[in-house]
Amino acid sequence: MHHSLRLPRLNVFAPVPTMVIIPGAGTMMIRSIHQQAVKTGVRAVSTTAPALIHGDNVDLSDPKQMALHKLYRPERVTPAKRGVDLLKTPRLNKGMAFSLYERQYLGIHGLLPPAFMTEEQQAYRVMAKLRKQPDDLAKYIQLDALQDRNEKLFYRVLCDNVKELLPIVYTPTVGLACQKFGFIYRNPKGLYVTINDNSISKIYQILSNWPTQNVQAIVVTDGERILGLGDLGTYGIGIPVGKLALYVALAGIQPEWCLPVIIDVGTDNQGLLNDPFYTGLRRKRVRGDEYDSLMDNFMRACTKRFGRDTLIQFEDFANQNAYRLLDRYKNEYCVFNDDIQGTAAVVVAGLMAATRITNKEFRDHKLVFFGAGAAATGVAELCVKEMVEEGLTEEEACSRIYLMDIGGLVTKHRYNNLPDRHIKFAKDMPDTKNLLEVVKTVQPDGIIGASTVAGSFTEEIISEMAKINARPIIFALSNPTSKAECTAEDAYRITNGSVLFASGSPFDNFEMDGRIFKPGQGNNSYIFPGVALAAILFKAKHIPDKAFLLAARRCSNFVTEKSLLTYARLYPRLKDIRELSVLIAIDIGNYLYKHNLATLHPEPEDKEMFIRQQIYSVEYDELINKTYDWPSKDMKHGFPVPVMERTSMDDE
User: Fold this and answer.
1) Which member of 94, 139, 152, 243 is catalytic?
2) With 60 as the cut, is the pLDDT of residue 555 above it?
């Protein structure tokens, strides 16, 4: 099925970009100006420095470029809502930022205080109040209320303060919010599909109840493995809600395209079953054929309701279902699992960035994984794919990857008891559960922790890694911070600053001997927004594994030399994720068209312009379209009225 280039109707739009020529501006100056331009819609181009990205140097005086610009840009439509209904619509509400003309025209004059505020003033007010909250949960509740009240301002605040607020709207605070969901629940934010709705028709009806018709991205969970907190049942709805907030903030995906869904098949958490505030079905989890039937019907209903190319992201499914469902649907639907594929890509991106310092090809690295769950195995498999891309055979690549699970080193002696995905990594070595022994024997370039065993990277192990390598790679990826295999401080201190460190949870900067180290966080947020943006805009048939390798490469290349050499930081700055997402989407878009996986036709001539024109703007828009005149000859008042003969009704 092919889609024409007629774009979906949008109600929230970025300002039309113009271009400013800056004579003699250098690259760093242009980068700074470009970051400001993203907010204002102004394109800045130097006459001496090359454009940072192809497409920034677009001259709209060129008729062809102007034609593309007009084709790709979304159009504004005056909302039909008026009065109180408009103020209660988060997508349209601007609070005291409505102009006097808008207040009078839209029937809200007198319903608001008479003061007028800019969006910037409103954002300042929100942050001032937010920073006075007693704890992170209180901040989460305040932001949640803001999203219910004024969607545009919520995303403006989030985008302007992404480093500060990302841990509030998503991990780790969202986990606490899910645990307390029964207490803090206010307004519905997603759809609930239960085991009692197990038919395509019933699920279709539920999907049809969602107020937005143009859904293009669905994030779904069954609540069985919420972060590191286990089975939270329907309390897990906060995860797809938070994930989709990041779709908007970090990739500019339109909020009205997003739908959070929770699949309620019960819960095995007895505490929730006894909780008087629990919001889900009070029954044990359904498994087996009935569960699979529900998931099959859900997938069919989603594509029947919203289209075959609708992106569906699986989030926080338990390990026994995560891989199985991904394998079941990935070649038939446009789906991905962020816990498996997103995690794999972001870890590989960190390893790729590390190779810029170790000066060794990726394929030449030996890696030991301490922990071999679904996420770690996904990382190992993507490492193999990258090594194969660099010229190794799959067997050679697997020989460079060592897995340690709860039973110890994955060896051929354990062959009969290994999961299918572990078999290719099994080594002809003695069985052992001792990580230090494995490190001494294997002499790896890097160790990657995904065990949730706090402190498992002991001082002796870290010291041994420093003896083996001039720049040892140590990734402590377990979440939350309390379960990390080691702290950033320990890694830097024990290796005397030579370590290339990354973590799953954020660590503070560390200063030693006058040098500041900024530990990189292997956050999936570097990957999934760009992947989702490409899949949505180019209407992918499905998402190939190569898309995640492309995202990893772009992420690693986006790390500056200063970050690597001065701060030993292996990931980009969080505030740059929106720009990174655009670049990832361009790379993936090119791949999709090259391999006939995109269904949006004709192919956009300028993919960057096409993408940037669809990105959600956090700036307020004028809600009233400007009026315009017709030719005066077409506005004459009808036709000449002939003299009509009138007869009196009075009798003579």
Assistant:
1) 243
2) yes
